[in-house]
Write a structure and sequence with these properties.
The chain is mainly alpha-helical. About 85% of the residues lie in helices and about 0% in strands. The chain is built from 11 helices and no strands. Helix 2 packs antiparallel against helix 3 and helix 7 runs parallel beside helix 9. The N and C termini lie far apart (about 85 Å).
Length: about 220
Amino acid sequence: MLNSLQQYIIQLIEWLQGLPGGPWAGLGAPFLEAIFPFLPLVLIISANAATYGFLLGVLLSWIGNLLGTIVVFAAVRYVFRKPMTRWLEKHKAAVYWLERINHMSPISLGFLYSLPFIPVSLITYLLALIQMPLRTFIMAAGFGKLLVVVIFSVIGDQWEEFIQSPFRLSMLGLLLVALWAISRGLEEVLKRRAFKKRNEQLKQEMVTKRQRLGHNPVDS
C-alpha cells in the first residue's frame, strides 16, 4: 500500500513538472480545484511543495486556490445568484449550512476554511448568496486557506520521509483524525448555535404577535 502511495505521489509530481508553464502550472492546479472541488486539493498542495520547494509551493498553492475561490464567489454573487438561490431552496444540506454560517465572525469562517473535511465550496456559494462583503470574504478565506496550505506543504516538502517513517506516517494519520474531529465538533457547535438562534427568533415572533393581538381593538 505504501509503495502504491509513493508511486502515485511520484506520478503526480512528474505530471506537474511535465506541464507547460512551469510554476504557472503549480498556480493553475489549485485554481482549478477551487472551481472544480472534486479535484484532490491536499495532493495538489503536497505535490506543489514537493515540486517547487516549501516556500514557492505554499505561495503557488495559496494564491492559486484563493484566486479560484474569489472567482467562484464573484460568479455566484453577481452572475448566478438567481439559479443558485433556487438551488438552495431545494437542498436541505445547503440550508443546514446557511443557518450555521449566517452569524459567524470572519475569524470563525477562516478557521472553517482551514478544515479539509468541511465542504468549503458550499460555504463559498452561501457566503456569496448572503452578500458578504468581498473584502471580509477574502480575509476569511485567505486566512483559512493559508493554514491548510502550510500544513500540507510541510508534508509535501518532506513526503519521502513521511512515507518511509512509520512514526511520521502515524502522526499524519493522527493529524487527519484530529482535523476530522475538529470539523465534526465545530459542525455540532454551529448546529447548536443555529437552533438557539432560531428558537430565540421564534420566541420573539410569538411575543410580537401577542403584543399586536393585545393592541387590536375589541369588536363591539
